């Protein structure tokens, strides 16, 4: 959208969409969450806006659960919306303890706001109702891209809960035994990583994207990689950096852990996935599995003769 002149990624989220009188985010009272008037699209991309993450952090009145966990526990079919989630930020006066642009703190809710912006911009440009998933399908892995990958799908509806066959079932290990998951309501995670596909398609996607051969031009790819957060110099505009692995990002959802990276120094891309979380010893056992993603990626590179773990 930035390349096409549809938005200015350095603009405040309260500014108007180019060529319209419509602001990037709704001007309604429910959207008056902390620091809204100071936040830019760039800061949301860099996780430096200070937007509280109600999907990963506990919310007053819902402890010991996050807001999304609590709602799904009471109603697994609930259709989440970004407006609903930012209303929680307003009502609970939730934000992280820094001014926008000062520090880094990961936030799924911040990326939900970005998805809402994409939805609003695309609707304005198309002059008809569009969704975030519509834009992703049409312009990211879809037919309007140089390298179409139609098997990559972005779930936004509470009813879109199952992956096509064949697919993996994930497992979460707990002190009371393993819990298996074959479906999940992703409607609260739109924007920060609600896509899925085959390993080969994801590999083709990260390679072509980061080489400037797909949805983005090389100059925009460089911008995404190099315009980094003040609080985290390894994180740019939705893209992180890991030495000897390259540029990409991690992801995790209900028993799945994964990441995909591309290393321009050696023209090597890596996709790693583990369909299991281990919470038998809480965070210590979870991060043992999480850290194994990197170990597996380094080992794969070494087998192929490329530099591995630094």
What class, by secondary structure content?
Answer: alpha+beta
What gross morphology would you assign? globular
Task: State the share of residues found in helices, binned by percent.
Answer: 25-40%
Residue runs with pLDDT of under 50 for 5 or more positions: none
The largest β sheet comes out as:
4 strands, antiparallel
Brief overview, please?
It is built from 8 helices and 9 strands. The chain has helices spanning 41-45, 67-74, 82-92, 108-126, 132-139, 199-210, 218-226, 282-303; strands at residues 153-154, 170-174, 177-181, 195-196, 240-242, 246-253, 256-263, 268-274, 276-278.
Strand and helix layout:
Elements (H helix, E strand, L loop, with lengths): L40 H5 L21 H8 L7 H11 L15 H19 L5 H8 L13 E2 L15 E5 L2 E5 L13 E2 L2 H12 L7 H9 L13 E3 L3 E8 L2 E8 L4 E7 L1 E3 L3 H22 L7
Structure, described:
This protein is an alpha+beta fold and 310 residues long. It has two domains: 1-130, DD-peptidase/beta-lactamase superfamily (Beta-lactamase, 3-Layer(aba) Sandwich); 156-310, DD-peptidase/beta-lactamase superfamily (Beta-lactamase, 3-Layer(aba) Sandwich). It is 30% helix and 14% strand. It is built from eight helices and nine strands. It has helices at residues 41-45, 67-74, 82-92, 108-126, 132-139, 199-210, 218-226, 282-303; strands at residues 153-154, 170-174, 177-181, 195-196, 240-242, 246-253, 256-263, 268-274, 276-278. A four-stranded antiparallel sheet has the order 5-6-7-8, sandwiched between helices. A three-stranded mixed sheet has the order 3-2-9. Strand 2 and strand 3 (177-181) form a beta hairpin. Helix 4 (108-126) packs across helix 5 (132-139). The longest helix has 22 residues, at 282-303. The protein starts with 40 loop residues before the first helix and ends in a 7-residue tail after the last helix. The mean pLDDT is 95.
């Amino acid at each position: 959208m930035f390349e096409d002149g549809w938005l200015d990624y350095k603009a405040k989220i309260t500014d108007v969409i180019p060529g319209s009188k419509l602001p990037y985010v709704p001007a309604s009272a429910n959207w008056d969450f902390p620091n809204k008037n100071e936040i830019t699209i760039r800061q949301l991309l860099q996780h430096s806006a200070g937007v509280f993450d109600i999907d990963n952090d506990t919310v007053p009145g819902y402890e010991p659960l996050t807001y999304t966990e609590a709602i799904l526990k009471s109603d697994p079919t609930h259709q989440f919306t970004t407006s609903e989630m930012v209303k929680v930020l307003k009502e609970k006066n939730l934000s992280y303890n820094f001014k926008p642009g000062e520090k880094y703190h990961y936030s799924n809710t911040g990326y939900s706001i970005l998805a809402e912006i994409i939805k609003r911009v695309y609707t304005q440009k198309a002059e008809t109702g569009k969704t975030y998933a519509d834009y992703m399908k049409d312009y990211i892995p879809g037919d309007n891209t140089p390298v179409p990958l139609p098997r990559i799908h972005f779930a936004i509806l509470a009813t879109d809960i199952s992956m096509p066959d064949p697919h993996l079932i994930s497992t979460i290990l707990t002190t009371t035994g393993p819990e298996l998951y074959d479906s999940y309501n992703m409607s609260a995670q739109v924007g920060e990583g609600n896509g899925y596909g085959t390993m080969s398609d994801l590999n083709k996607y990260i390679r072509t994207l980061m080489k400037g051969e797909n949805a983005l031009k090389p100059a925009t790819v460089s911008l995404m990689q190099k315009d980094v957060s003040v609080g985290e110099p390894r994180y740019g505009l939705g893209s992180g950096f890991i030495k000897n692995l390259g540029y990409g990002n991690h992801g995790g959802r209900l028993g799945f852990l994964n990441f995909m990276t591309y290393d321009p120094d050696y023209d090597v891309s890596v996709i790693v996935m583990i369909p299991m979380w281990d919470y038998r010893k809480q965070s210590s056992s979870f991060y043992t599995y999480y850290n194994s993603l990197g170990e597996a990626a380094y080992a794969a590179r070494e087998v192929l003769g490329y530099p591995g773990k630094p």
